[in-house]
Fold these 2 entries.
Entry 1:
Amino acid sequence: MRKKNIRSRPKNLNLMTIRLPLPALVSILHRVSGVLLFLALPLLLLVLQRSLTTAENYRSLTAMFSHPFSKLLLLLLVWAFIHHLLAGIRHLAMDAHWGAGLANARLSSKAVLVLGLLFTMLAGVKLW
Amino acid sequence: MVTGKGFIPRYGARRWLVQRLTGLVIAALVMFLSMAYQLTHPDGFEGWKSWLASNTIRLAFLLLLISLCVHAWIGIRDVLIDYVKPERVSLLTRKIVALTLIGEALWAVKILWSI
C-alpha cells in the first residue's frame, strides 16, 4: 500500500521548467565537468603516448592541435578542469564550515563561475 | 562515529578523505608541472621527450595520473550509483569503470617508463 502511494505522487521532471539556484548550477557543473574529464582521460593518455613515439608523430599531433576546432575542444577541457578545481575548493571551504549560509553560498558560487570563465579565457589567450 | 584509540576511517569517511587528498595532490602537481614546463621551455620532440625523461618530472606525472585515477573512481562511482538504478547493471558498470581506471593507471606507468 505504501509503495503504491509513493509511486503515484506527482513529480515534475521537466528540466526546462525547473529554475536552478546558482549554487545548484555550480554543483551540477561540478559533476558534469568531472564526467567530461573522466571521458577525456583515455584520449589524453593516447596523445601522451603518441607524442613520445617518433618526431613525426609529435609533429602531426602539434599540427592537429593547432586546428581551431581542436583548440576549442581543448579549451572546453581546460574549463572543465578549472571549474572542477574551483568548485572542489569551494567544497573544501564548506567542509571547513567557511562560507556557510545562503548569502555566502551564492557569493562563493558566483566566484567559482566568474573565476572559472576568467581563467579559461586566460588559457584561451595562451592557446591562441 | 568511530571512537577509541586511533581514528582509522573506513568506507564513507575514508573515501571522503581520499577524495579530498587526491584532489589536492592533483591540483598541486598540475601547478608544479605547468610551472616547470613554462620555465624549462622544452622545444620540439627531443625537448619534450627529454623533459619527460627526467626522474622528477616522470615521478610527478605518474603521481598525478595515479591520483587522477583514484579521484576519478570515487567521483564516477557516486555518479553511477545515483543514475544507474537497476542493481545488477549498476554493479556491472561500476566494475567496468573500476577495471578501466586500473588499466589507465597501469597504462600511465607503461607510457612514462618506456621513455
Entry 2:
Amino acid sequence: MGTVKPEDDGRPKPGALALDAADFRHRIDFLKAQATAIRRWTVALSGAASVGHVGTALSSVDLLTGLYFHELRVNPMLPDWAERDRFILAHAETAAALYATLGARGFLRSDALWSRLRRGHAPVGRTLAAAPGVDLCTGSLGYGLAVGAGLALSARRHGVDWRTVVMLSDEECHSSSTWNPARAAAHMKLDHLIAVVPTTGMRGGATDQTRSASTLASEWEDLGWHVVQTDGHDLAALCGALEQFVHVSGKPGVLIAHTVVGKGVSFLEHGVGCHDRPLMPAETTAAIEELA
Amino acid sequence: MRAALVSALAAAASSDPHIVLLTDSGANDAALKSFRAMLPEQCYDVDGSADAMIGMAAGLAMNDHRVFIFATEPMMTFRTCEFLRREICRNQLSVAIVAESGAGEEEGRESLLQTLPGMRVMTVQDAKDARAAVAILASTDGPCVISVPGEAVGDRR
C-alpha cells in the first residue's frame, strides 16, 4: 500500500458541485445513500445502548453527511492529521448519529469502539474524546461553541487555515453560554469558525413557543455573524450552503438548517412526546426495516 | 499582589508567544492594561460569562497554548465547575485561573476546587510566590487555580 497523503482524503475537490448534470446527480445520489445508511446505524446504535433522543439524532443525519462526505477536510486514515478541520458536536444527545457517520466515513470501522457501540457496550449519550475523529468530549449542553471559538482563535494565532465547525442545538441558543462566546467570536472576527444549528421548531419534545427560525437568524445576524439558511434535508442545497462560507471573511458564519425531528422514520417524524425516551425493541426493528 | 503576578506573566509571555491572557472588562486594572499595551497580541478581552471564558481557554489550550484567565465574576457556580471538570480537568489542559479571594471565601472555594481531578491549587502570598507560581506553570502541563489575596482598590491603580 502506498503512502497516504493528507490531501488524498477522499473529499471532493473544491467546486465539486460544479459538475455536469449527470455527475452532479450521481454525487447527490451517493450522499443520499450514505445518509440512509447512517440513519439505519443511528437507530441501531441507539437501540443497542437503549438511549433516547433518536428523533433529534435522525434530524442531524443529513447535515453530518454533508459535512463529513463533502465539506470537512478530514482523513479517516489520519484522524489526528494536524491540518484537518475540527468538528465539535455540542449537543451530544445526538452522538449516535455522529458515531454512525464516523463509522460510515471510515474512522471507526476497524476500531474496537465500533464493536462496543454495536453491542451497546459504549455510551452513545455523549461523545468520547478517545474515539477516532472526535475532537472534543461533550455531554451537557452549552459547552461546544466557546471551545470552538478558542480553537478558531488558536488556529489564527498559529497562522493555519483549518476551520472549526460546531454543531449545536437550537435549544442551546436559549443559553448565555452560547451567546457570550458568539459575541466574542464576532468581535474577534473569527472567520474560520462555523456554527451549524439544526432547528426543528421543537424544544424538549414539544413545540417551541418562544422563538421562530427567522428570529433565531436575526439574533445571530445582530451579533455580527454571517447567516445562511437552508433546508437541512436537501443535500444539494445544504452542500451548496456550506460552500458559501469559504468566501466569507471578517466574521464567523452560522448555517441555520431547517430540519424535522425523526426525519426518515415515518412514526418518528415531527414526533411529539418521544423526545428523550429510548425506542422499544419493536420500534427499533420497525425503524430499521423502514430505512432499508 | 495581582500586579506582581501580572508582571511575572509579562516577563514569561514576552519570550513565549503561546502564553495568552483572557480577561473580562471588569478585570481592567493598571497591571493588565500595562500587559495589554506591551503584548497586545497575547491578551484578549472576552467579555461575558465565566463559562464562555473557560470554554475559549479550553479551545486555545487544545492547540498548544497556555492560558491565564483573569475575571471579576465569582467563579464558583456549580455550572462553572462542571465546565472546569469536563473540559479542562478531564483533558488536563494547561489553563490557569487567577482567583482573588475575599474575606471567608477562599476556604470553601479551594476545598471544592481540589476535588476536581488533576486540579492544582496554588496560594500566592507575595511576589516571590508569584514568580515561582508562574515559573512552574510555564513549564508544566495541567490545570491550576491561583488564589491571590484580595487587594484594596488603591493597590490596583
